[in-house]
Design goal:
46% helix; binds NADP nicotinamide-adenine-dinucleotide phosphate; alpha/beta; 7-stranded parallel beta sheet; Rossmann fold
């Protein structure tokens, strides 16, 4: 059985590939640009060139695929593209799709949560067995703060002292890997969080300890955060959607803790301290080089 992994060069998809490789699964990675995936090919991943915005490229990629992992970044047409993938998978006879969704899908009034629920519903109605993975904010997002830590020893947000149960993308990927290789996860939704909810002040302290320098959390009014990030080149539609979510978080919507990662993977969820250590030692050279200046 070959498993198709979309987003194989991305945060979560690349970790799904690593998890499946370690378990000797046969993997086909969907990539737009094979030059970005030479390391995957070297590790034995079959590459399929495809783009979800060009559904005609998906037929060959889905040929003979029984199970697929579906992820796309947040794009203005994310719902349309993911639904087109589901339709192509149905046509190709795919039997299960593990869909990367988001915590709060179907519950929160924020844009990304509404989009993901629309895609989940399309998948549920397709007749394909589904597994919805709904992670909270990824610990890996902390790379976004490298520049401001380097410049001013600060991380910025607008969520006050609200607690968020950040989750490691590797743990999300491990749950996806189990759902793709073991039975019993069909037609289920999993909310995926870290083992504790912490504030941005606590995150600043964790990074200060890991880096051996002062790191402070600065809470900004939402409009000021938006203006700063707009000036940094981020698209307005994306910032507006994020601010909607941050507003929900301020009311406590990001603080729930579940034990799903430990239950499904049989390993405890990574703590923020463990993530900071791992990131420093393996993936974070660029981050920490920037931060140390
Ligand atoms: N970040 C968070 O805290 C968080 C938390 C919960 C849920 N989520 C959800 O996670 C998703 C993003 O996951 P991620 O962080 O793993 O994304 P990512 O790192 O941005 O990776 C996106 C992947 O999708 C590929 N891709 C982009 N456009 C494509 C297209 N048109 N056709 C085929 N492939 C395409 C990219 O390939 P290229 O290499 O070619 O660009 C890349 O491999 C979003 O839906 C978001 O709502 C995120």
């Amino acid at each position: 059985m070959t498993i198709l992994v979309t987003g194989a060069t991305g945060n979560i998809g690349s970790e799904v590939v690593q998890y499946l490789l370690e378990r000797k699964a046969l993997i086909r990675g969907l990539v737009r640009d094979p030059k970005k995936a030479t390391n995957l090919a070297q590790q034995g991943v079959e590459l399929a060139i495809g783009d979800l915005s060009q559904p005609e490229t998906l037929d060959a990629a889905l040929q003979g695929i029984e199970k697929a992992f579906l992820v796309l970044p947040n794009l203005p047409n994310q719902v349309e593209l993911e639904c087109a993938f589901i339709d192509a998978a149905k046509q190709a006879g795919t039997q299960q799709i593990v869909k990367l969704s988001v915590m709060g899908a179907g519950e929160l009034p924020s844009t990304f949560q509404k989009w993901h629920r629309q895609i989940e519903e399309h998948l549920e109605q397709s007749g394909i067995a589904w597994t919805h993975l709904r992670p909270n904010m990824l610990m890996q997002n902390m790379r976004w703060f490298a520049q401001t830590i380097a410049q001013s020893g600060s991380i910025y947000n607008c969520v006050g002292d609200t607690k968020i149960s950040h989750v490691d993308a590797r743990d999300v990927a491990a749950v996806a890997g189990v759902c793709l290789t073991e039975p019993g996860h069909e037609n289920k939704s999993y909310i995926l969080t870290g083992s504790q909810a912490i504030t941005f002040n606590e995150i600043a302290d964790i990074f200060a300890k890991a880096l051996g320098r002062t790191v402070a959390y600065i809470d900004l009014p939402p409009a000021d955060l938006k203006a700063a990030r707009l000036a940094n080149g981020e698209p307005e539609w994306y910032l507006d959607a994020e601010l909607e979510l941050f507003n929900c978080w301020k009311q406590g919507a990001g603080s729930a803790v579940t034990d799903t990662i430990a239950t499904v993977t049989r390993h405890p969820a990574t703590t923020y301290e463990e993530f900071a250590q791992y990131y420093a030692q393996t993936r974070g050279q660029d981050f920490f080089a920037t931060v140390r200046g």
